[in-house]
From TrEMBL:
CDD domains: ParAB_family. This is ParA family protein. It comes from the Bacteria. Pfam families: VirC1.
Length: 233
């Protein structure tokens, strides 16, 4: 039951959207997912309230520094992936969550403020490695990318981060109506009506590719039969 944490010290970087897209797509592919909503904004908890019970997804809303490890321990036998959504901050809860993670995803839009927020998380990861000998795998995921952004621009962003030794996911999260509507209307990309949501097919494909890349990067310790092959189909 790997723990994947979404963190950026700046709010508004798209981490909650990225966390929910990944969680719902993993659940859709047969993995049991527990989302730990540690963001005071509680957007994922609100989504869960609007949506109701969803197959393979549990959401825990009351998460504190003291309770975080207990939530993971108590649910590890019924969970294939834990997804932690954090506040846009660098505080004790963020440090605790990162310390418990198997992989940290750092969402970044193409702006300097997001980059500075990401740098705070990278600095924290560096301190854990240097002072405590705890090395945690991490990746940047580019979020809210305009569908018209050129490949050249994408390549430049990735090259800049890679030059600093930062791994960047090959799958960026595009700016899609479906990714906004999921919070307002509830449900998942799989249950949305393509007649009512523009470019839903492209949003679904974006989510599928993101989940496939994450599954290869952070394989489940108890793989659900056939799930990875379905994603790759």
């Amino acid at each position: 039951m790997p723990v994947i944490t979404f963190a950026n010290a700046k709010g508004g970087a798209g981490k909650t959207t990225a966390a929910l897209i990944l969680a719902t797509e993993l659940a859709n592919q047969g993995y049991r997912v527990t989302i730990l909503d540690a963001d005071p904004q509680r957007w994922i908890s609100h989504w869960h309230d609007v949506t109701g019970r969803q197959r393979n997804i549990d959401v825990i809303s009351e998460v504190s520094m003291a309770s975080l490890q207990g939530h993971i321990r108590e649910n590890r036998d019924t969970t294939d992936y834990f997804i932690i959504d954090l506040a846009g901050a660098r505080d004790a809860l963020v440090a605790t969550a990162i310390g418990l993670s198997d992989h940290v995803m750092i969402p970044v839009q193409g702006c300097a403020m997001d980059a500075r927020g990401a740098a705070h998380i990278l600095d924290l990861l560096g301190q854990l490695a240097e002072k405590a000998g705890i090395r945690i795998a991490h990746s940047v995921v580019l979020t809210r990318m305009n569908a018209l952004v050129t490949t050249r621009a994408m390549t430049a962003i990735k090259a800049l981060l890679s030059a600093k030794g930062v791994h960047v996911l090959d799958t960026p999260i595009a700016e899609r109506t479906a990714f906004r509507d999921i919070f307002d209307c509830g449900g998942t990309l799989a249950t949305m009506d393509p007649a009512k949501v523009s470019n839903l097919d492209k949003a679904r494909e974006n989510a599928r590719l993101l989940a496939l890349e994450v599954l290869r990067l952070v394989p489940a310790r108890r793989r659900r039969a056939g799930a990875l092959s379905r994603l790759a189909a």
